[in-house]
Amino acid sequence: MTNRGTLLTAATVLVAAVPVAAWGLMGQQNSTELPASQLDYAFEPLGISDGPAGVLGATALLLAGVGAALLVRASRSGGLDKRWWGVLAPLVMAGLLVGTGWRILTAGVIGANIGAGLVVFFMVPAVAGLLLWALGRGVWLATRRPTGGQWSGFAPRGA
Predict the structure, then answer these.
(1) What residues have CB less than 8 Å from 114, skipping those under 6 apart?
(2) What mean pLDDT is predicted for residues 10-31?
(3) What's the CA gap between 106 and 41, in Å, rounded?
(4) Pick from 54, 58, 53, 80: which is nearest to 69 by CA?
(5) CB neighbour list of residue 60: distance below 8 Å, 6 or more residues apart
(6) N or C: which end of the chain has fewer CB within 10 A?
(7) Is 49 helix (H, G, I), strand (E, B) or coil?
(8) What is the phi/psi pair of residue 122, to 5°?
(9) Given CA atoms 38, 42, 43, 47 in this order, what sign does their dihedral have?
(10) Band of residue 45 on the pLDDT scale cut at 50, 70, 90
(11) How far apart are CA 87 and CA 13, in angstroms?
């Protein structure tokens, strides 16, 4: 299981599925005091009800689990350089923050959405920092010269 294409696909599925899973499984966070038509929104939510969103979230969670399992298996067998987890983990965390942040930003509230302000104030810089870290670490790993006869790229055994 050291095929570079398979590892790249598994990593892409993991990183892309996490925000969808968080968004879908969290559900719409509207206030229950008024009907949805009378609530205020910082951003309009997507036109998907909680039922299909939950199914989409569960499917994304399953895909993320499969991607993570493939990557862990490859990492344990030596097909994936363990240092690449320093790129994948921040991307997964950023995805989790984006999925939950989007639900908070689109929550229907009465008056001001304080949660939206907190998301913008705290989560946006955190996501930016995680993405910059992952980019810097990924570039560093991809351009680093081999040491000790081992290639430091995505699949160290050259498969």
Answers:
(1) none
(2) 94
(3) 6
(4) 80
(5) 17, 18, 20, 21, 24
(6) C
(7) coil
(8) -105, -45
(9) negative
(10) confident
(11) 14
